[in-house]
Each structure stands twice: as C-alpha cells, then as structure tokens.
Design brief:
Structural class: alpha/beta
Number of strands: 10
Strand order of the largest sheet: 7-6-1-8-9-10
Largest sheet: 6 strands, parallel
Radius of gyration: 24 Å
Strand content: 5-15%
Number of helices: 15
Amino acid sequence: MNRLIIVGNGFDIAHRLKTKYGDFIKYYWSQIKDSSYTDNFLGFHIPGYILDDCDGLKSTIDYFSSRNIDLKKKLNNPNYFNNGKLAITVKNEFFCRINERYDEADWVDIEMEYYTNLKKILNREPTQNVDEFEKETYNKILKLNDDISIIANEFDKYLESQVLPEIDNSFNPRMKELFDNDEIFENDLKHFFAEFPKNLIGKELKQEFEKKKNESGIVKKFDHTLVLNFNYTETIFHYLRPKMASIIHIHGQVRNSTNPINLGFGDERDKFYPTIEDQNENEYLRFIKSFYYSNNNNYKELFDFVEESSFQVQIMGHSCGLSDRTLLNAIFENRNCKSIKVFYHQYPSAKPNGQTDNYSDIVRNISRHFNQKTMMRDKIVNKTLSRDLPQLKLH
C-alpha cells in the first residue's frame, strides 16, 4: 500500500504562515503610505492624504468619504472619479475586483472568480458587428489574463520576501507524527484496516501484510509516499525530504523559473468549458491548469505513482474545491485509490451553525469530484478514524 498526501494552503496556515490572499492584500496596502502612490495595480490622483490606516480598497474609499471626497465609478469604466475628475486609476481590474472582497476570499475562490469572469465575457450579447465584437471579446480576455499574470508575479515576490524567511521557524512537533511511517504489528491491523473498504481487507491487505512479514519480518504501513503539494512553499520539507518521499509541486514554486507559480482554473467537466474550447482561440485557454501540466514532468510523475499500486489519499489543508476538479477526479476515481482520509481543521470555537470543524465541508467538496457516488462512500474514511490537523501555537 502506498500513500499519496495532498497538501493545500491550510497546511501552511496551520504553521502560522501568511500565505492567504488576504495576507497578500494587507501587505500590499501596508506599503501604500499616501495618496501620491502609483504602481502596476493602482494610481492615485488626490495628493496630500495619509493612507497608513487603510488596509484595503473598501477602507480607502471609506477614508476619502469621511473627508468629503465621494468616489464613484462611471458606467463601463473601472476607474474612480470625484466630481467628474479622475481620482484613482485602476490598472489591474481583476486585482481590484477581488480586493473588494478579500476578507472572505482564499485562492480557490479567486480561481473561481477568474473563471466566472472568463465566462461572463464570453456570454455577452453582441452589441456591434461580429468582427468588432470578437475583437472586443479577445481584448477583454487578454486583459483579464494579463491582470492575473501580474498578480501571480507580485504574489511570488510577496511569498519570497515575507513568507519564505518565516518557514524555518514554523516547525510543529505535533505535525511530525502525521508523516511517520512506523512498523505495523499484528495487533495494529484491525485499526489500520478499518480505514479501507471491507471487501479489500481480506483479499489484498491481509495477504500483502502476511507476504511482507514472511519475507522480511518487518512491515511498514506504507511502501512509498508521494506528496502532491499544491502550495508554492516548501513547508512540507520540515517533515519529509525528497530522499524520504517523492514531492511534486504541482502548482509551481516560489522563485522557480522552470516551475513558476500557477494560478488558473482546472475544472474541464464544467458544462461551459466546451464553449471556451469551441472559440478556437488559444488565449482563452491560457490559465486552464491542464495546459500548465504539460510544461514539465510533474503530471506524468504523479500518474506513474497512481498507476503503480494501491494507495491511500491523505488530505492535509486542501479544501478540494472545484478549481482542481479535473485533477482530483482522476486521482479519487482511479481504481488504485482505495481510501481517502481527511485531516480536518478544528475551529477554536463553534461556528454559528454549530460546526466545530470543517470535516463535513471537505467531504462535501470531495463528493463533487466523483461521478460514481457509491465509490465515494466506500472510499472516504469516517470521521472517527480521522483527526485534526495540528495548529502551530504561539509561544
């Protein structure tokens, strides 16, 4: 039995690393000191105001409003105006759109937002002749793609300067035990086998255990481990090094020119996706994740592992959102995937709906990646056999 560990942004957050989109936005605004600021996202044209206390676009608009500067947008214009005069130039429309709601957004939401905007542009009703409309559509999508490319580049710089220096101090001793691959003994088998479908235990797992025991006398829980790291960081190296396990940075790495960070969308099962392909314009597919996977050997390495032997999936900090559905479906429904174990986030206090953790949310998300729901119910390890993902505590 092999082990495939899927690591998402919740893993970095559990190590108190500021890798959320909201952290990036707050840092961005912390660099804006006054209203003469300009960069490749925004440009201000109202000099003389101190913006130290503004931590987002909304709070900045509110700040100016409190000083009787009423900022408004014009129809089909991304910029902000005051009494008809240009006040804030919006150079990156997508950045400002997601900035407006960063408090509740994470990277999965932003990738969904990108896809939603892509669909909106392609779903517009023509208002001029066909050639002009197609040219306008192309230019709008080109601008959207350029905007997200700039965001990815800036986020890469943020991670390099603000997050990577903190990783060395983020080791969590309580997390280490999740990655241990201890020897398994006869009296441990019942508990371990409970994580797998009943029809698998007798004909495969028990036979495998007996065979290995007879050959060497020592049996480990898992033969090989592969980490599918959706993060751009290397926090996982605290617990597993390449010599101990295969590690694939499927969405790229910080400051890696051959495997740059990859923002985009990866649900080719979405009913609108064929419409995008039918446009016969490659620019519209620039940020569809599947095409990124062909830039290196990561995808092939992953599915060489998946096809090699039976494996258990362990999910650590990944929400299993729709923006990765094509990839996750191929893993979860593969015949060699025997069970899926969720390491959930335990909330500090109960949510208004009574939830004390996100186990059920992740399971619901996982269900959306299955075409065969019976297979899903057989594979998911129930909560009593799962556990929380340890959070690094402040000293």
